Each structure stands twice: as C-alpha cells, then as structure tokens.
Amino acid sequence: MTALTNFALAISALLGPSLQVSACDLVDLASAETLLGASASEISGGTDPGLCQYMDALGQSLVSVQVTEAEYYDIMGVPEPPTDVDIGERARYGTDEVGDLTLQFVKGELHVSIKLSPNPDRPAPLEALEQVARTAADRIS
C-alpha cells in the first residue's frame, strides 16, 4: 500500500463511524460489477462504514470506495495532473503510473473517493467510473 492509501485508511477509520452514509451503500455491488465484471464480491468485511472494497472474480481488479468529510477533498488528492469532471459540487479524477484511476467528488458535507485498480491487461473504464460516481452522488441526500 502507498503512504497515501495508508493515510486515507487512517482518516476513514477515524471519521467513518460518525458519517451518516455507508460507502457500500453509495457504491453497491451492482455498481462495482459495472466496473469489475459480473462476478465481483465485496471484500471489505463491513466493519468500517467509511470504507468499502470490491474485487473481481479473478482477484485481478479492485474497487475501493472511501467516504470522509468534505474538507478531505483537498487533502487526499488524485494522481497528477487532475482532470475536473461535473459530479456533485466539485470533482476530479487522475490516473497514476500503474493505471489506477481515482475519482473524487464532494456533495454536501461528504467527500467520496472511488479508486479502480484494473486488470493490467485492460484499461480503466473512465466513462463507467464517472457513471458509478454520478449514481453514488445521487444516493447522497
């Protein structure tokens, strides 16, 4: 895991229980399957409502969803250079050097980060990730 991932997990562990929404409710299994394929499964164990992870059937691709308070949007960031996208009140995405695609958005008092670590043989589906993020934003009341 990267230092940023460890930092994000620590923030989620501290803030997740106080949030009024579950990461697994914002990006449910059906949404994860849009990104990973038909036989995805939830692997995060459900112990932290601020963190949810799904893996494809082959164990090659992963979706991680994290929900924190809105001010963490500026702290956590996405890989450079970020590209703005029209989701929620503000949003951006970026792809790192290994092809992992991270999309973050803010809606109301929440910051949501969705990271897709795709199979190395297949590029990350940006349009599908944007749709999953829009659906997640619509689920925030």
Detail the topology: elements first, then pairings.
Layout: H1 3-15, H2 23-26, H3 29-36, E1 41-42, E2 51-55, E3 62-69, H4 72-76, E4 83-84, E5 90-95, E6 101-107, E7 110-117, H5 126-138
Antiparallel strand pairs: 1-2, 2-3, 3-7, 4-5, 5-6, 6-7
What is the number of helices?
5
* pLDDT < 50 stretches: 3-8
Count of domain modules: 1
Residue share in helices? 25-40%
The average pLDDT value, as a whole number, equals: 87
Radius of gyration from CA coordinates: 13 Å
| Spatial separation of the terminal alpha carbons | 32 Å
- Structural class, from secondary structure content? alpha+beta
Name the descriptors.
single chain, 141 residues, alpha+beta, Protein Transport Mog1p, Chain A, 30% helix
How would you portray this structure in words?
By secondary structure, the protein is of the alpha+beta class. The chain has one domain (3-138): Protein Transport Mog1p, Chain A. It has 5 helices and 7 strands, in the order αααβββαββββα. The chain starts with a helix and ends with a helix.
Can you describe this structure in just a few lines?
The chain has five helices and seven strands, in the order H-H-H-E-E-E-H-E-E-E-E-H.
